[in-house]
Amino acid sequence: MSQADLSVPFRQRAGSAMKDAFLQEALTIATTKFIGLRREAFGDFPEGEKLRDVAREIKEATLQHLDRYLEQLIDNVERLGGKVHFASTAAEARGVILEIGRRAGARMAVKSKSMATEEIHLNEALEQAGITPVETDLGEYIIQLAHERPSHIIAPAIHKTKGQVADLFAKELRRTVAADPEVLTKIARGELREKFLQADLGITGANFAIADTGTIVLVTNEGNGRMVTSLPRVHVAVMGVEKVVPSMTDLMVFLAILAKSATGQKLSVYTTFVQGPRRAGELEGPEELHLVLLDNGRINQLAGPLREALYCLRCGACLNVCPVYRQIGGHAYGHTYPGPIGILLTAMLSGPASVKELAHASSLCGACAEACPVRIDIPRMLIELRREVDETKIAPRTERAVFKAFGRLLTRPVLYRLAARIARLLQRPFVRDGAIRSLPLFFGDWTRTRDLPAVAPRTFHERWKELAREAPP
Ligand code: SF4
Q1: pTM of the predicted model over 0.70
Q2: End of a domain among 255, 282, 299?
Q3: Which domain holds residue 434?
Q4: Which of 132, 203, 283, 447 has its CA 20 to 30 A from that of 261?
Q5: Is 195 strand, coil or helix?
């Protein structure tokens, strides 16, 4: 599935993904590799655990004074000759960027990988305005050729096997090539080189921006980020407001854990620091630098239930370990941000109604929180989101009725004991070897893909009474 059709129910989208043999192969190889590399990286880095706590504290402290740090950042970027724009919505951000492009007379924009620009659907807007966007990160380039959207936060083409990429290049670039990553990369590099020189606009995201120096920080692996920020005449960086960090010292903490969590590298290959446009006497760099600060629902969540999701560094580690993501990949989620953190970010950007199905697309196993470099408690927020979906009556009526009845049962001991006795009798025809293999009617959904443990012959309370009677005085 390349592009999720949101009119198709999530269960169906997930089902199709699970039947896609290519997707299953690509996902298993890539996520297993990422998990192993991350484990090794932190295994060799005993300070890592402590730094994760420090990083979390920095994030929280920054959010508490976000207004102050943003003001400081704006002052410093402008002091260095850059221009800062604030966009409350995706539409406003697109408007600002198109206006910059129009004034620059831009016909082509080269882009380095940026989830923020995916979030605001920038490519479509650029195309409509007559500016050709060219993705220059290899994964994004593949996705653009395939007319798809990224399926992973850091590895946009994770859902494709190398054979599929070779077929895509043969079709779109009319080049017959071997399914060899090195050969494929060389071809993409050759295609892109000219574009860097032709483009008038360079568009990037920003992994961080340092408030007390006005530095925009890009963390990349392919070097394309440096070309995008230095060759075109105008550089536009698009950044969610929560990405500001107070100082260079704070940045070092994040850099020490970001690449290890994402790809298992000690550091990413390139860490680019952008400080204003080209100055007199400098040989390279853009004539204009614009920083677009994107709100799009974030500021509202400073006092909202999803506040902790604003700590996210977009490393993708929670996707790699999530048993749901590993089965269905990113496209089945149907929104810009996939995986467990993606559900929270989607709710943040588009409201809880947009995730009424996705809020349940988690086993709540806790693997995401365990892997997250800033220890975001994703399962807790997913549970809160489920409650919100329920309380705002977004969930279907039957589902709400069942959970309401279940809640009553669990909070009334007499009723609970009675229900346990009745369930013990009713389950008899369905129990085999201590498990319920299949249930009739709509209860069948619970046993369609897994067994349910049978209700025990005696409850804990019953056993406890017996033990108390048998115990010596
Ligand atoms: S929630 Fe944590 S693990 Fe997931 S992408 Fe964000 S920082 Fe990485």
Answers
A1: yes
A2: 299
A3: 414-470
A4: 203
A5: helix
Q: Looking at the 3D structure of the chain, how many domains does it have? A: 2
Label the pairing between strands 435-436 and 431-432. Answer: antiparallel
In order of 2, 115, 233, 333, the CA distances from 5 in angstroms are 9, 20, 38, 10
Task: Tell me which residue of 292, 264, 270, 289 sits closest to 278, measured CA to CA.
Answer: 289
| Residue-wise DSSP of 353-399 | GGGTTGGG-----SHHHHH-TT---HHHHHHHHHHHHHHTT-S-HHH
| pLDDT tens digits, 5-16 | 788 999 999 999
Residue where a domain stops, chosen among 251, 279, 299: 299
Tell me which H or E stretch contains 13.
helix 10-19
Is residue 26 in contact with ligand 1, taking CB distance under 6 Å?
Answer: no
pLDDT in tens, 215-248: 999 999 998 999 999 999 999 999 999 999 999 9
Which atom number of ligand 1 is nearest to the Cα of residue 316? 5
SS3 state at 223: coil
Taking 50 as the threshold, does the pLDDT of residue 1 lie above it? no
Distance 293 CA to ligand 1 centre (A): 21
Q: How far apart are CA 111 and CA 123, in angstroms?
A: 10
- What distance in Å separates the CA atoms of residue 455 and residue 205, rounded to the nearest whole number? 53
Q: Whose CA is nearest to atom 2 of ligand 1?
A: 372
State how far the Cα of 468 lies from the Cα of 195, in Å rounded to an integer: 80
Q: Mapping DSSP to helix (H, G, I), strand (E, B) and coil, where does residue 132 land?
A: strand
Distance (Å, whole) CA 327 – CA 214: 41
- 276 in ligand 1 pocket by Cβ < 6 Å? no
Query: What CATH number is given to the structural domain containing 223?
Result: 3.40.50.10420
Q: Token pair of 295, please?
A: 């709100």
Among 219, 307, 341, 370, residue to substitute to test ligand 1 (most atoms within 8 Å of Cβ) = 341
Look at ligand 1, atom 3, and give the residue with the nearest C-alpha: 372
* pLDDT > 70? residue 421: yes
